[in-house]
Amino acid sequence: MNIFIPLLAGLLLGYLLKRAGKKPNLEIPTSVALLAMIFFLGVKTGEVHVDGLWLFGVSTIFAVFTVAGSLLLAEVAK
């Protein structure tokens, strides 16, 4: 629910600025916000412990079954 408060505040501020005929330059704040979000996403991702070998094995099995299923459906649809 906390995300809706800044969203609504931004909508209201944008509407009021549009009505006043002013168009603020939001290039720099937008870039800063995006870089901060990417940075914190990386920090959060770095905190997660992942067993790489297990993940590789499961991904490989999933890929093999996906290809096999596609080939089987292609043969059935002939």
TrEMBL record:
<keyword id="KW-0812">Transmembrane</keyword>
<keyword id="KW-1133">Transmembrane helix</keyword>
<keyword id="KW-0472">Membrane</keyword>
<feature type="transmembrane region" description="Helical">
    <location>
        <begin position="28"/>
        <end position="46"/>
    </location>
</feature>
<protein>
    <submittedName>
        <fullName>Membrane protein</fullName>
    </submittedName>
</protein>
<feature type="transmembrane region" description="Helical">
    <location>
        <begin position="53"/>
        <end position="74"/>
    </location>
</feature>
